[in-house]
Amino acid sequence: MPHFGYSPNLKVLRINFCGLSQIHPLSFVPLPNLETIHLADNDLTEFPETLMSKMDKLRILNLARNKITNLSNIEFAIPDGLVLEQLVLDGNPIRFGFKEGTYKWPMTRQVHMANTRMVKLNGTFAVFEASPMCEDESCRSLRIPSSFWSHLITADFGANPELKIHPQAMPLLANLT
Q1: Would you list the DSSP string of the chain?
Q2: Mean pLDDT of all residues in the chain?
Q3: Can you list the domains of the chain with their CATH numbers?
Q4: pLDDT at residue 84, as a whole number
Q5: In this predicted model, which residue has the larger pLDDT, 24 or 35?
């Protein structure tokens, strides 16, 4: 990841298709007013926990088509009370959810999780396909807090051919586009 000089006027950062495999935890410190970060189509597997902790203007985070398999390696440490406009995780081969009680799912108005190996959605959990490293459903589940649904307007769970949506989730999805 390149080093940035202090650039308070930079609002949009796009580093797509660059083979980026890691990001230094302090990379975005000189970019305090970023509103949009596109890091799609790279080789990222994790996201440092301190990377977004001071980004109180962040609205869009696009991590589509990277190599993210374990959501526990993606720390969504955004400032408290911040609601993202868009979180894009499409095309990541997710196998593991968060470890219970260790990470919080960010509030967002739009979530894009197409082609992420999701197999079940019931309103409180999303479950991903089993793998040799994780057969048990508990390690491949993502807990979804009820507050998540109150902010959500748009959701894309397409291209997950094994996805089963539990009837209990239908009222939560009914008003989404």
Answers
A1: -------TT--EEE--SS------TTTTTT-TT--EEE--SS----B-TTTTTT-TT--EEE-TTS---BGGGB---PPTT--BSEEE-TT----B-PPTTT--PPPBSEEE-TTS-EEEE-SSEEEE--BTTB-SGGGGEEE--HHHHHH--EEE--S-TT-EE-GGGHHHHTT--
A2: 89
A3: 1-117+151-160 (3.80.10.10)
A4: 95
A5: 35
Residues 101-122, mean pLDDT to the nearest whole number: 87
In contact, 128 and 104? CB cutoff 8 Å: no
Please tell me the predicted confidence (pLDDT) of residue 177: 83
- Global model pTM greater than 0.90: yes
Tokens linked to 3: 């080093």
